[in-house]
Amino acid sequence: MFGPKSSDAPPHELISGREFRVLQVLANLAAHLNLPYQPLPPVARR
């Protein structure tokens, strides 16, 4: 489910690669907009 495991896998095993990529994109977008980045925004904001 999580793809190939590597010996130096990141500690956040609970997050899949796709979700982590989305978080990276959101972080990059927040930095581009010069906004304070919140790793886990409220789920209500949909």
From TrEMBL:
Keywords of this entry: Plasmid
Organism domain of life: Bacteria
Per its record, how is this protein called by name? Uncharacterized protein
What is the source species?
Paraburkholderia sprentiae WSM5005
